[in-house]
Design brief:
The chain is mostly helical. The chain is 79% helix and 0% strand. The chain has helices spanning 9-18, 27-38, 48-80, 83-119, 123-158, 163-178, 180-195. Helix 3 (48-80) runs antiparallel to helix 4 (83-119), helix 4 packs parallel to helix 6 (163-178) and helix 4 (83-119) runs parallel beside helix 7 (180-195). The radius of gyration is 24 Å and the shape is elongated.
């Protein structure tokens, strides 16, 4: 039939990947080698179940360590500081959970966008997405921190914190809110790495 002897450009590269020239590795192998060197994971090749299992195990370990940190924090405060400080940590926990959920949601949005571009091999769009995330972080972190600091008092009054624990709870939340840049930065970086298939570094 007409055109049977023609070889399309895509067909040529597909054949080249399957039968590489001497000393030339297939494209999939080259990408896999580059991903290993960068610590990323190409989930578009190989077993989906294996990729998801390996990816989720690191996330599970990270979540466990974070919960362990909260338990140790409460134990140390209750044992060496006092009951008032322990009550302050307990009061501040739901407030911190609210902030953390917001930051995790924002980082998950970045993860989805970066993962789509990375899976499609559009590294220039990946760089644009990362630049956008960092630009948004740098322009919004100061107003967010100021807003959180101003909201500490109203939040504690809304929670109807007792006077015995109010002072230490207020101080605890003020310190935590002043360091929101670190918490937000960590979650954003974890989202970026997650989008690149690297859950081990988070």
């Amino acid at each position: 039939p007409a055109g049977a002897g023609k070889l399309t450009k895509r067909g040529f590269f597909d054949r080249l990947d399957k039968n590489p020239m001497p000393g030339q590795a297939p494209e999939a192998e080259r990408r896999s080698s580059m991903n290993r060197e960068r610590g990323t994971r190409d989930m578009t090749a190989g077993s989906p179940a294996g990729h998801l299992l390996a990816f989720s195990l690191h996330l599970l370990a990270g979540s466990f360590l974070q919960q362990l940190y909260n338990m140790v924090d409460s134990w140390v405060v209750g044992r060496y500081v006092g009951d008032g400080a322990l009550a302050a940590v307990g009061v501040g926990f739901p407030v911190l959970t609210m902030f953390s959920s917001l930051f995790i949601g924002l980082s998950s949005g970045g993860t989805v966008v970066i993962a789509q571009f990375f899976g499609a091999g559009k590294m220039d769009r990946v760089r644009d997405a990362v630049d956008t995330i960092y630009a948004a972080f740098l322009t919004s972190i100061v107003p967010l921190t100021a807003l959180a600091l101003l909201a500490v008092g109203p939040i504690l009054r809304l929670l109807q914190v007792e006077e015995a624990a109010y002072g230490e709870a207020y101080l605890y939340l003020m310190v935590v809110c002043a360091g929101l840049a670190g918490s937000i930065g960590y979650n954003l970086n974890a989202g970026i790495l997650g989008g690149l298939g690297n859950s081990r570094s988070t």
